[in-house]
Amino acid sequence: MGKNIKRFFEWMKKHPIIVALLSVTSFLIVIPLAINCAYMWGRSLLEPNTAFSANDLLIFYGTVLTFVGTVLLGGLALFQNHRFRIIQKNMTTIQPYARPIAI
After folding, report:
1. Percent of the chain with pLDDT over 70
2. Where would a tag sit more exposed on the chain, N or C end, judged by fewer CB atoms within 10 A?
3. 13: burial class by Cβ within 10 Å (0-12, 13-18, 19+)?
4. Whole-angstrom distance, CA of residue 21 vs CA of residue 7
5. CA distance linking residue 79 with residue 88, whole number of Å
6. In angstroms, rounded to a whole number, what is the distance separating the alpha carbons of residues 2 and 6?
């Protein structure tokens, strides 16, 4: 049993993108189902019924997509600022040794 768990964690370390995608998609399915179960807790219904309308689900997934977009844009901004600092640092270390060219 221990070897299987170690192999599973090694596989997860080798494939972080697949693990992240599976985690996100499972949360996008599990969260609405958990909310739905909370709505239906204690009710005895003969027919399956949901407390969600199509409008509610579209609002939920729109909010999730807005959050993901905001996080991705924030990460992109941080990455660009980091690259800009590296370029700026390289330019300031090179600049004092540059000689003007006379024409």
Report:
1. 80
2. C
3. exposed
4. 20
5. 14
6. 6
